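Q: My labmate handed me this sequence with no annotations at all. I'd like to see what the chain might look like in three dimensions before we decide whether it's worth expressing. Could you predict it?
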Amino acid sequence: MQDLPMLSAEAAFAVDFNLHMVPAALGLSVPEMAAAAMFGVDSEALQFYIASVAKTVRREAFGLLSNPTAASDIDRWALPAGGTVLAIGDSITTYRFGYARLLAAMLELRRPLDGIRFLNLAQSGYTSTHGLETTYTQFLAHQPDWVFVKFGVNDCKRFGGPGAKPLVSLDEYEANMAGIVDAFRRFTTARIVLLTPTPVVEEVVNTLPDFQPMRMMWSNQDIEACAEVVRSLGRRHSLPVVDLVQVFGLNPAPDLFLIDGLHPNLAGHQIMLRHVLRALV
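A: Here is what I predict for the chain of 281 residues:
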């Protein structure tokens, strides 16, 4: 029998516990070839698509910077050369056309020599409970100068109908968000910007064929309750709050959202970004 190479003890441990199945929770990057295999697409096609999205975001960022006020906001942002910006949250933050990607592109275009590191470490499906854990296991290690925190939409999911409990109770959400803020205040010098969860288009998201088999639904009353937690946290610690419930309203315009009624589209994120820029200065 041919001798086969032995795994290291560390690699064997990882295999034993199927840790390759949870790369995000461990802060591991997924190679593009592996990502392509997961999506069932060609690796080159995936790379081309990702590059085309980045090109679109850069073009949109260039357009946003044509507004003198937006350009001035980036210039006046108290972010030192060589500094680190961290964006954490759920799919609304990790979205490739989202406010965080646009902001990173604006920084790169406007302040190319500053060597600023912009880390978008949001993960689709994450709740504030995930956020609290990964703040300690991953995020604090980056010692950011600024951090944007946006959780809540996944916390508000209800499985089983209107009478079912939210995935994360309001008390738990409040404790989680307070814990995240406390961690960055205690263990970093980061300046913290809080974003409330975004409302949903209820008549769309709650009738979506993809979601109905899961018995999954949202209520903007739950979103508003979480938003008030964020507002209160901001008042308590004198932190800027980007109130996205106020921005979109509790009956948001469907044309600012993707077809799922859950995620703001590029136009919606551009509006979000305008309010984020105001919070910076």
